Amino acid sequence: MTRGLVLAALDRPATTRLRASWRLDGAVLRITVRDDSPEVAAVIPARGLTERLTALGGHWEVDAVPGWGTTVTAVLPVGIAEPPELRPLDRLNPREAEVLTGISQGLRNRQIAGQLQLSEHTVKFHVRNILNKLNVSSRGEAAALARDLRLEPVTHRTA
């Protein structure tokens, strides 16, 4: 990135001096190249460089003053990106999704337990976890959320 910015500045014939600097600003790396070229017509770096910068989640900051020079800064995020927010149903493990399928079909705990070959106590445990993970207070709310978010039907395991 720095090399591309320096070469772009040197391509302007009126450039006699330039300065390159790097600054780590929290989770952002700022690569700045400043030149003294009075020309500001071709300040934006080459398209290939822009494509690379945007692919990395960065952007340009350009300050060009005719007769004084140009400062081009590549702003790049560094570090680990935050994971995307999960859909509420993505928080459930496969067994909880199976239990939620039973709930959304209007089945009671005993019926779900029989269908999934679990104890009724285990189903109650899963129901409590489902309510917590989905941030709802009742089976009806969980079933409505499953319907609204289109819970995919889970195929039941066979022995």
Average pLDDT confidence is 84
Structural class: alpha+beta
Shape, per Cα inertia axes: rod-shaped
Would you report the number of β strands? 4
Number of helices: 6
The portion of residues forming beta strands comes to 15-25%
Rg from C-alpha positions? 29 Å
Low-confidence stretches: none
Helix content: 25-40%
Largest sheet: 4 strands, antiparallel
List keywords for this structure.
159 residues; 4-stranded antiparallel beta sheet; single chain; alpha+beta; 6 helices
Task: Write structural notes for this entry.
The chain is of the alpha+beta class and 159 residues long. It is built from 6 helices and 4 strands; from the N terminus they run H-E-E-H-E-E-H-H-H-H. Strands 1-2-4-3 form a 4-stranded antiparallel sheet, covered by helices on one side. Strand 3 and strand 4 (69-77) form a beta hairpin. The chain is rod-shaped and about 80 Å long. The termini are far apart.
In short:
The protein has 159 residues and is an alpha+beta fold. It has helices at residues 2-11, 47-55, 94-104, 109-116, 120-134, 139-148, and strands spanning 18-25, 28-35, 59-65, 69-77.
Give the helix/strand layout.
Layout: H1 2-11, E1 18-25, E2 28-35, H2 47-55, E3 59-65, E4 69-77, H3 94-104, H4 109-116, H5 120-134, H6 139-148
Antiparallel strand pairs: 1-2, 2-4, 3-4
Helix pairs in contact: 3-4, 3-5, 3-6, 4-5
